[in-house]
Amino acid sequence: MFKLKPLAIAILTLASAQVMAAGNTATQIQLSGDGNDSTAMQTGISDGNTSTQVQAGDNNTANVRQLDVSTGNVAGQAQAGNGNTATIEQKWGAYYNEAAQAQTGNGNTATVDQHDEATANHVYQVQDGSANKAFAENAYVSTGNYATQLQSGTSHEAEIWQQWGEGNQALQVQDGDDHYAKVYQGADANSNISVQTQTGTSNTSTVNQLFSADGNYSEVTQNGVGAGNSALVEQNWGGGNVSVLDQDGDGNDAHVTQQHGDGNGSALTQAGNGNLASVSQHDGDGNQSALTQTGNYNSASVTQADGGWNVSSLSQSGNNHQATVTQGGGNSNELYFEQDDDGNVLTADQSGTDNLITGYSHGDDNVVDVDQVGSLNTAHVEQYSGSSENLADISQTGSDHVATVLQGGMGNEAFVTQTSTGNTAYVLQAGTNGTATIIQN
């Protein structure tokens, strides 16, 4: 949680401290009345300009334009009231500029536009109230820019666009309910960082790092004891990207997509009830997915297709989980799974050569279904620790496969089906009412 008041003093002091050189100064203060307009223009080749605008009331408009090869300029806007609009433009060869906007009230809009060869610029946007909107853009051959958005209250929208640039950073923090946060870093945008934190219920988070974007990092955290949070992370057409997604609460929904790239990594954690999670890594080699769910009624889906040397790690602790993992179209893929407690279901499919599935389901009424197609694949399933009424079904098509099933408890069943030659199957059951069937043809 962040403190917003006194809002205008804090944000304008932060902006003023960043002045790099002496220049022109514009100060506009409108403290009474509604529907006021305030405009400041500082253009041309200039350094160290400062523009400050303060408005109190409703439906006011504030505009600052610092353009044309400007360096070390500072723009600060503070508005208190409802339905206000604040806009700052720093572009066309802008370097080391600062833009700070603070709004308190409802239905306000804050916009910062820094683009066209903009380098090492900073954006600070702070809003307190409800139904406010914040938009920041660092784009078009922009490098090393920072955008920070802080919102407290309800029903806010925050967007940061950083594209066609490298080394940009986006930070969004929202405290309250029914917020929407989006970060877009794409189109030849490399080594960018996106961090989103949402506290409350019914919040939505979206991160897009797309189109020839390599080495990007995304971190999404959603905290709150309540239903309805959702998060979407897309890192496509690039390699070496990392996604870290953490949800704590009930009824959460999370989706991570990393496609058309090599060496991507996803770490997704959900703690709570009724969560849904999906990870899709397509058309790439050496991708890694780690998915952890703690709680009840969770569902997990991991797909790693059309690539090799991919690794998936799945851990579920709780009741009535469902998990589906698909690794296809490549070689040397690996799946490691853990399931604890009751009623878990795991379905795993692999196609290719030299793939591995290994793990355990400890608890009651678990079902493990493994299907491997190709050659030299290995499946190892354990159902121990007092487990009962478990079912393990392994199907291997092709040659030189190895299947192992270890079951402890009562009422367990094991089925192993292997086709072609050079296959090996081993089943061990400890307890009563177990059934073991091995078919090799």
TrEMBL record:
GO CC, alphabetical: pilus
Protein name: Curlin associated repeat-containing protein
The keyword Signal appears for this protein: yes
Similarity comment: family membership: Belongs to the CsgA/CsgB family.
Keywords: Signal
Signal peptide: 1-21
Domain of life, source organism: Bacteria
Pfam families for the chain: Curlin_rpt
Sequence ranges of Polar residues compositional bias: 255-326
Keyword DNA damage: no
UniProt GO BP: cell adhesion
Chain segments carrying region Disordered: 33-56, 239-331
